[in-house]
Design goal:
With 332 residues, this protein is of the alpha+beta class. Helix content is 19%, strand content 40%. The longest helix has 18 residues, at 188-205.
Length: 332
């Protein structure tokens, strides 16, 4: 077995793009393709994402045949727990990758790349200068505040207030100061413990629904913020802990989208206004409310999120028949 990959990162968050070696994926909708890969090819996710080739916080992208009209490419996202519905840092990387690899015809100064995701169509705009792809922005599916000012009681932390917002995936959003945490003062482990406790509690007490498809109605993780809404000259910090306690090194594209939806619904940001979002490693995304829309019964926005991706290398991964550990394992 041989699988070829190109590795990139966006704001420090890895993306392992499969370029060859996967079996054919049957035709169907993107959610049907996601279900097929989950049910039939999950051993390949484990091989690519888990040790010894990956690690607990590795992330991957599998390009598949598009189903939606107008899509330039379609993608399934992979992580330590399974398959997500949206990933902004991956969109930033795939936008640049599509231009560099000739998957779309490069046009200066901006090249549009329409990327079909499990949550729907996402449009990336790639800056191109002298044929070289640079920064990427994207407009995702409608994002909305699902539930505001809810609370749960968590062991070790007491009563915690939070919102639930959708930005291509559902997140619980909470001020980290409620947990006694401060950015720059506490390490990632303390944030992971707090965010994981919140995610597990919210999953049990707050059922979710999505106006388009029930496959989208699950809590992907929790985002702990610095409690600030940011401003023209001051970034707001956050950390996203998703899937099986996986830590996003970037500010999280779908998370920034969800935060913008919540900020707008609460009157803390207007149409056309922008914010800067900073991750736990100091990388930044710019986010803005591009326009106002609806999503079923929900008032919603379309967010525009911008960032940069870089290449790390490429690899050819193999698996020998008698290599049990080579099929994938996790220590943490």
């Amino acid at each position: 077995m041989t699988i070829n990959v190109v590795d990139m990162h966006t704001g420090g968050e890895p993306l392992r793009i499969v370029t060859g070696g996967y079996p054919p994926i049957p035709k169907g909708t993107i959610l049907e393709k996601r279900a097929f890969v989950r049910d039939n090819l999950d051993h390949l996710r484990r091989m690519l994402i888990f040790e010894p080739r990956g690690h607990h916080d590795m992330y991957g992208a599998l390009l598949v045949e598009p189903d939606l009209p107008g899509a330039d490419l379609a993608v399934l996202f992979m992580h330590n727990e399974g398959y997500s519905t949206m990933c902004g840092h991956a969109i930033v990387a795939l936008g640049r990758y599509a231009v560099d690899q000739g998957l779309v015809e490069a046009e200066e100064p901006l090249t549009t790349v329409n990327i079909e995701c499990p949550c729907g169509m996402v449009t990336a705009s790639v800056q191109v200068d002298n044929g070289r792809a640079g920064a990427v922005s994207f407009e995702s599916v409608p994002a909305f505040l699902f539930a505001a000012d809810r609370s749960v009681v968590l062991p070790d932390y007491g009563r915690i207030k939070f919102d639930i917002a959708y930005g291509g995936a559902f997140y619980a959003l909470a001020d980290c100061r409620q947990f006694g945490l401060r950015f720059g003062r506490h390490g990632a482990a303390a944030f992971v413990k707090a965010a994981t406790a919140l995610t597990e509690k919210v999953k049990t007490e707050f059922p979710l629904s999505h106006p388009e498809h029930e496959d989208l109605a699950f809590l992907y993780g929790s985002i702990l913020t610095d409690g600030m809404e940011g401003g023209p000259d001051k970034p707001t910090r956050n950390i996203c802990v998703f899937a099986d306690a996986e830590v996003d090194r970037s500010p999280t594209g779908s998370g920034v989208t969800a935060r913008l939806a919540a900020l707008h619904a609460k009157g803390q940001i207007g149409g056309g206004e922008a914010r800067t979002f900073e991750s736990i490693v100091g990388s930044r995304f710019e986010g803005a409310v591009a326009r106002i829309t609806t999503a079923g019964p929900h008032a919603a926005i379309v967010a525009r999120v911008s960032g940069r991706a870089h290449y790390c290398g490429k690899a050819e991964f193999t698996l020998e028949e008698d290599d049990i550990l080579g099929r994938g394992f996790l220590v943490r």
